[in-house]
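In the current project phase, the collection of sequences with tokenised folds has grown. A representative record is quoted in full directly below:
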Amino acid sequence: MTRTLASLPALQEAVLATPKAGRRRVVALAGAPASGKSTLADALCTSLKEAGERAQVVPMDGFHLHNPILVERGLLARKGAPETFDAPGFLHLVQRLRDEAEVAFPLFDRARDIAIAGAGLVDEACDTVIVEGNYLLFDRPVWRDLRPHWDLAVRIDVEIATLRERLVARWHDYGLSGPEATARAEGNDLANAQLVAEAMLPADITVTTSG
């Protein structure tokens, strides 16, 4: 049964109460684009550290395929959709996080729009890894194989109207005009958000946010 939480302290408590299946606890934080995954993941990580837990965030975004590959496949305009990620590579990383002492992972440089291999490192002292991304509970081939590896699966629930506002604002901040920002949000990001909503595996916890 999925529990609904609305506060960071309650989520922290739920994480710390979750048994570890391996040497470290692996927590999934899933949600649509602009749902606040990165912000919540960072806040949760900080909160856990303040409670004495050695925690680290591992974003899924480091597994974006390189832009020339997306151009070759005619997918550049759909960057961020499931087919524009290295899903098998991401699954392999997640399989390693639970028990391997040290795990290197790629990070996405948003300013340069590229993934950088080996830019992040989970060391042997880490107790809890918070993995954040759009498709961590996505019920499609390869992606659904992630679900057994989460000790705790958390979904962020945000209304589509709120996501639209945030996405348009995001693209406007990146320098696009009003119409361009709206087109970018509606043509790709919201389509991905709808895809996530329509094919979501059950979460252990749903986090509700407002605004």
